[in-house]
Design goal:
Number of strands: 13
Helix content: 40-55%
Shape: globular
Number of helices: 18
Structural class: alpha+beta
Radius of gyration: 33 Å
Distance between the termini: 85 Å
Length: about 525
């Protein structure tokens, strides 16, 4: 018999609430029971007036709505607000009934743009981490650091070429002090200010010329151009804070980069956002300082070869920590001698070439590299000169950084089985974090513009990922504990019954023996 679909259900009246419509194993139920959201009031209390103004929407509701956006990878707050209107689980999570009107998306947007600043977002991120740490799920003894690019909301065709000053290195003064100390140890005069340096400085003259506010006449144009410390960059007119991402065969595009640190369990401990054209090693100092300040118990830093620089190696080892990194291929002459054929003799402070000739110390340049030069008279008749150098003067120059010893320490660590195994965990920790963020939480691109807005967006996304992982793990452990207790109870009951039965049998056997006697 044909039965048609009922077109109208207006005559049905059901007495239900949202709690009856949400499954007991729903993700939002796990999250709601995992943490105490009332602690948010203490975070945002100073952002509201106690006496003046209209009654506000509950700040916990606003933060929960943003968490829903990041938990389920919704692209925008407008879409999030519309989904919350029709989704019973979302309504239950924010504490709204079936007929209550949910907050408008513009209310959420306005609060997160004008009221909830970067400091508020940092406090929310730290609060979730503290909840995880108190439950005993954090393991920050070894941390994994890397960066991932996020496509910016910018048109690739709307761009300009702009000349900007090169950012000064944070360790420039420390490096220059050691360079000057090294030059003095080799009988060279220390470097002066760059504006006053001449070409004669690198030649090692003993006399120090008087300082002058004007550059000397014999300073080359190339050096003058270098000292201006300017570089050309491609800048977006749509979002000036992002940067052009260029890497290998990847498509050139404007992007941001999230430099992130996680622990062995995949919990994100810290993240710093920069433009897409900032190298990982440049942003390392900010990330490292923040994460070590919050977690001083860190012992090992696991990073890829992009972080294997003299400064980073020195900073980590000087702090009493270990850097576990990968092999970094040296940049040598193509089809020439292998790099390891040039052996450094620490005792005589020289380099031995593949033909067993000595390259003597020449100078220490401003970048911190000692230069070892060969004798042109010897190299002129060398049988393997074409494999060594293409210099017209027949001079081979080998450079060695003054902090090279720290890089060699990192190489020694790389061959240690313990740290080699730790490096293999990158694919299941930091790489997995980035994969989940992009596949499950829509972090491949951002709809926001400006560094501050995108930074808050990324930080909230990682906070939601930490919360999700923590809630699921806590629920699993509770189930395992309950099953273990149930099994233990059954075992104890069985043991008690076994003892009582066995005791009765022993008593009967003794009685029967006594009666026979």
């Amino acid at each position: 018999m044909l039965e048609r679909e009922k077109q109208s259900q207006e005559e049905y009246v059901l007495c239900v609430n949202t709690d009856m419509l949400v499954p007991q194993d729903h993700l939002l139920r796990m999250i709601n029971s995992a943490v105490d959201f009332s602690k948010i009031y203490g975070i945002v209390e100073n952002l509201y007036s106690a006496e003046n103004g209209r009654p506000s929407i509950d700040p916990v509701v606003l933060i929960k709505m943003v968490l829903i956006q990041h938990l389920y990878g919704l692209p925008s707050l407008r879409r999030t607000a519309s989904e919350i209107e029709v989704n019973m689980a979302y309504r239950w999570f924010i504490g709204y009934g079936l007929l209550e009107k949910t907050p408008h998306f513009s209310t959420i947007s306005y609060n997160f743009k004008h009221r909830f600043t970067s400091e508020t977002v940092d406090k929310i991120f730290a609060w979730i981490l503290n909840e995880i740490a108190e439950a005993g799920y954090l393991s920050p003894s070894a941390v994994f650091i890397d960066g991932t690019h996020i496509k910016a909301n910018a048109n690739n065709k709307k761009k300009i070429q702009e000349e900007v000053p090169v950012a000064a290195k944070r360790y420039a003064k420390e490096l220059m002090d050691e360079i000057n100390a090294d030059r003095e140890a080799h009988g060279k005069k220390p470097f002066e200010d760059e504006e006053n340096e001449t070409e004669e400085d690198n030649d090692g003259d003993d006399k120090n010329p008087p300082k002058s506010s004007k550059p000397c006449k014999n300073t080359s144009k190339k050096k003058l151009a270098r000292r201006k410390k300017m570089k050309k960059v491609t800048k977006s007119t749509t979002d000036p804070d992002c940067g052009m991402f260029v890497k290998g065969d990847h498509k050139r595009q404007f992007a941001y980069e999230a430099h992130t640190v996680c622990d062995e369990h995949g919990y994100v401990l810290e993240t710093v956002l920069t433009a897409g054209n900032v190298h990982d090693s440049v942003a390392f100092d900010d990330v490292y300082d923040k994460v070590t300040e919050r977690f001083p118990e860190i012992k090992t830093i696991v990073a890829d070869s992009a972080y294997k620089t003299p400064h980073i190696c020195k900073k980590i080892f000087d702090d009493g920590k270990i850097l576990s990194t990968a092999y970094k291929r040296p940049q040598t002459k193509k089809d020439g001698h292998e790099w390891w054929k040039y052996v450094y003799d620490e005792y005589y402070d020289c380099v031995i070439c593949p033909e067993y000739q000595v390259l003597s110390y020449s100078t220490t340049n401003r970048d911190g590299y000692r230069e070892y030069k060969s004798n042109p008279c010897v190299c002129q008749n060398c049988p393997s000169r074409e494999l060594c150098t293409a210099s017209k003067d027949c001079v081979k120059i080998v450079q060695r950084h003054i902090w090279k010893d720290y890089e060699e320490l990192a190489d020694d660590v790389r061959y240690t089985p313990e740290y080699a195994a730790l490096y293999q965990k990158r694919k299941e920790t930091i790489e997995r974090v980035f994969a989940d963020a992009k596949e499950k939480h829509s972090m491949r691109y951002t709809n926001y513009r400006s560094l501050a807005q995108v930074a808050n967006w990324v930080r909230l996304k990682f906070a939601a990922m930490n919360l999700k992982k923590f809630a699921i793990r806590k629920k699993i452990d509770e189930r395992l504990n309950s099953r273990s207790l149930a099994f233990l109870y059954i075992f104890l009951v069985f043991l008690q019954e076994f003892k009582s039965t066995r005791g009765k049998r022993v008593l009967l056997n003794s009685c029967s023996k006594s009666m026979k006697i």
